[in-house]
Amino acid sequence: MQRIEDAERLDRMFHALADQSRRGMLDRLAKGPASVSELAEPLELALPSVVKHLAVLEQGGIVISRKEGRVRTYALAPKAFDAIETWVAKRKRGLDRQFDRLEQFLAKGAGSTGESK
Amino acid sequence: MQRIEDAERLDRMFHALADQSRRGMLDRLAKGPASVSELAEPLELALPSVVKHLAVLEQGGIVISRKEGRVRTYALAPKAFDAIETWVAKRKRGLDRQFDRLEQFLAKGAGSTGESK
């Protein structure tokens, strides 16, 4: 059960990142919290489009928001990228092990490779 | 120009990762190279579906393939996750700086916070 939820969370997270405009908003938010209009301006996007992108980022767990009066302010979620880092690190270990094995193989048997047809 | 290409590459990469079946294939490939049918079996997917997923992963620069005779073998690309790691690390630095500033702010002025209405 937990695993299915985790998988769906990763789906939403990676989907949220697969868009240049959304990544542009994250670049802005990496400098500090911002309102919807502050996020819209440099990207030259219409507000409804920005709101939509922000919803996708929020569903992906990458940003959080807070409404004060009529202004909603967005910020990077404190652990925004931890799940991705963990996921990537695990796969990289697999990749490293493959290269270690390849190196051992080459170190041991480099001279004795037979060419089979 | 370079930047647009990079952005499109990241789009394709994150899109490729936003799917549980595709991530399942990467988990298998993290153990070593595999053929299409070896990848299909544990996932209980039809071969055409697997072929389609693998094409998305290859377009995303995450896997590479080689055809020998009638068998196409897939492997994780040697630098499969480097672009993602670089991208995430950069944004995390921004996030860390925000927390540093917040800590400094709290350390300096914790007693003097005024409640404004």
From TrEMBL, chains A, B:
Which NCBIfam families does this UniProt record tie to the protein? HTH_metalloreg
UniProt domain HTH arsR-type: residue ranges: 2-96
Question: What name does the UniProt record give this protein?
Answer: Winged helix-turn-helix transcriptional regulator
Q: Which PANTHER family match?
A: TRANSCRIPTIONAL REGULATORY PROTEIN
What domain of life?
Answer: Bacteria
